[in-house]
Amino acid sequence: MSNVQNSLDYSLLERLTQTYAPSGIERAVAEQISEIIRPYCDSLTQDKMGNLIAIRKGSGNGKKIMVAAHMDEIGVMITHIDKNGFLRFTPVGGVHITELPHRRVRFSNGRIGVISQEKLDKPADLKLSKLYIDIGAADQDEAEGMVQIGDSAVFTGEFVWAGSRIISKALDDRIGCFVAIEALKRVQTEHEIAFAFTVQEEVGLRGAQTAAFALEPDVALAVDVTLTGDTPKAHPMDVKLGSGVAIKVFDRSMITPPQVKQWMAETAEKERISYQWEVLEAGGTDSGAIHLTKGGIPAGVLSIPTRFVHSPSEMIDTKDVEAAVELLVALLEGPIPF
Ligand code: CO
Ligand code: ZN
User: Fold this and answer.
1) Could you report the per-residue pLDDT of 117-154, keeping only the tens digit for each?
2) So what's the architecture of 75-155 in CATH?
3) 153-171 confidence digits (pLDDT tens)
4) Where in the chain is the domain with CATH 3.40.630.10?
C-alpha cells in the first residue's frame, strides 16, 4: 500500500497546524476541515458543542464505527490586565509552566505577545503567578484596545521539515485530524463511518463525550499523538519515532480491550503495516471518554509517536503518519471480528 506515501498532501497539515484553535474556539479549524471533506461525505454537520461530524453511509450490512480526532490545541487565557498593559493568564490544557518564559503567543485577532517573568530570587521560584504576557501595549487602555479578559491565545511554532520529519506547534492533534481526513478520502467500506472532529479534548475529553453519546457507535477509534522514549535519558517508553503507528494498550483514561488490540494488530500484520505497542503512563485521549459512553463502547487508539508534545516544536516522522493512514483505512474496510 505504498500509494499512500506519495499521495499525502502535507501542505494541508501545515495549514491545519498554523490555524488558531484553542480549546472552546475550534471554529477556524472546523471550517478548514469542512471545506476539504465535504465532497467525500454523505452528511456533514456541527453539533451543539462544536464537534464536526462527517458521516459516510454504509451498505446496511456493516457496523457503525466512530473515528475521533480533536481539533483543539493547548493555550492560555487572559485573567487580568494591569495598569501598565501587562496581561496575567491561566493555562488552557496541559501547559508546562517552567517552559513558558519567552515563548510567543498569538490571539485570534493576530496580536502577538511574549511571555516573560518577574525577577526571581532563584529559578525554583518560577510559578504561574510570576509570569505575564507583554503585547507591546504602553498602558492598560492600549492593551484593552487589543485584547480582553477571557481571550485565549495559542503558542506560535512554525511548520518546518527536517528530512522525513516535521516540526511544528499543534501537531497535537492536527496530525490526528489529518490522518482522519486522508482516511475519509480513501476509504471504501460497507461499514457506516462517523468521523468526529472533536472539541475541548485538551481540557478533559469533553467534545468526544457528547459526540459518542449522540452517535452510539458499535466501535470507536481515536487518532492522537503519544510520547516517545527515544531521546537522551528519556523516561523509559518503548515507542520510537519512525517505527510505525502506535497501537495504544494503556493510558490514564483507558485500557484497550483485548479484542480491539487483537483486531488492530492482526490487521496491521496482514497488511504489513509497521506498528508498535504504546503504554503511556501519563495523559489520555478521546477514546477514554468514548468507551465510558452508554453501556460501554469498545474503543482503540492509533497514536502518532511525537517528541516534545505540548511544546511549540512537536516532532513527528512521516513514516508513522503513512502507517497510521494505511492502518486506519484497513481497519475501516475490513471485517470487525467482535
Ligand atoms: Co494534547
Ligand atoms: Zn491530543
Assistant:
1) 999 999 999 999 999 999 999 999 999 999 999 999 99
2) Beta Barrel (2.40)
3) 999 999 999 999 999 999 9
4) 3-73+169-333
Helix ranges (H only) for 243-292 are 258-270, 286-290
CB 21, CB 72: distance < 8 Å: yes
Specify burial of residue 188 (Cβ count, 10 A radius: 0-12, 13-18, 19+).
Answer: exposed
Known catalytic residue: 26? no
Cα 172 to averaged position of ligand 2 atoms, centre (Å): 5
Ligand 1 center from residue 49 Cα (angstroms): 19
How far does the centroid of ligand 1 lie from the alpha carbon of residue 172, in Å? 5
| Distance from Cα 167 to the centre of ligand 2, integer Å | 16
Look up residue 337 and give its three cell numbers.
471480528
> What is the number of the ligand closest to the CA of 70?
2
In angstroms, the CA 90 to CA 97 distance is 10
Ligand number with the minimum distance to the CA of 288: 2
CA 161 to chain centroid, in Å, comes to 19
Compute the distance between CA of residue 195 and CA of residue 212 in angstroms, rounded to an integer. 11
Task: Give the model confidence (pLDDT) of 233-270 as tens digits.
Answer: 999 999 999 999 999 999 999 999 999 999 999 999 99
The ligand whose atoms approach the alpha carbon of 310 most closely is: 1
Q: Which residues of 208-238 are buried (b: 16+ CB within 10 A; e: fewer)?
A: bbbbbeebebebbbbbbbbbbeeeeeeeebe
Element (H, E) at 327: helix 318-333
Q: Which of 250, 233, 260 is nearest to 284 (CA)?
A: 250
Domain 3-73+169-333: what homologous superfamily? Zn peptidases (3.40.630.10)
Task: State the catalytic residue, choosing from 192, 201, 202, 333.
Answer: 201
Task: In the chain, list all ranges with CATH 2.40.30.40.
Answer: 75-155
Q: How far is the CA of 150 from the centre of ligand 1 (A)?
A: 21
**Which ligand has its closest atom nearest to the C-alpha of 173?**
2
Q: From the CA of 324, how far away is ligand 2's center (Å)? A: 15
Query: pTM for this one?
Result: 0.97
Q: Which amino acid is at 2?
A: S
